[in-house]
Amino acid sequence: MRPVFLKSQLYALIEDRTFVDKHLAQWQNASKVRLLKLEDQTDESVAFMLAEDYQEAFHDTFSSDDILALCKRFCCFCLDENRHLSATKENILKHFSDKEISLLVQVGALTIRSVGVWWISSPVLGRFLRAYKAGQRELLAMLRRKRFKEALLSVGDGRYASFSYHIVMPRFARCIFLLCSEFRS
């Protein structure tokens, strides 16, 4: 699965929230990242993916040439033209037909926000959110059982599959390092 980061994770690494928001907006305007709205019953937060990972998530998920061509057009639309978290019916109908919009909803590229408005999404967000919430529950349950409410990083190295979203794993460490170093420079 392609890396998905929560804005709150970046806030935990870099103290200045205004600085983080400013740089994320600059990156989004430069088409380096794609901001995504996570809607859950308990948590409404913003996630982001690097632009390359956002595009490759569609290639990893689908094999049909028709769907991939539509997803490629959608990625170009999202990264270059519509940088908002959502898309309105008027805006999206300029680029896609009703049938294509329905297909984008089915493949997870769009989620319904309200009548005529969709959240921009990614096909990996559902899996990420399930694993993230499961990891959160496992982590809290593990800490409740501990006497001093602390745990070693090595505890999560394979024992809990979804626990890895709460710990910087080697595969994601490079992305986090690049993000933080660019923010600090």
TrEMBL record:
One of its GO terms (biological process) is positive regulation of Ras protein signal transduction. Keywords: Kinase, Transferase. One of its GO terms (molecular function) is kinase activity. InterPro entries: STK19-like. The keyword Transferase applies. The keyword NAD does not apply. Pfam families: Stk19. PANTHER family: SERINE/THREONINE-PROTEIN KINASE 19, SERINE_THREONINE-PROTEIN KINASE 19. Belongs to the STK19 family. This is Serine/threonine-protein kinase 19. The lineage of its organism: Eukaryota, Metazoa, Spiralia, Lophotrochozoa, Platyhelminthes.
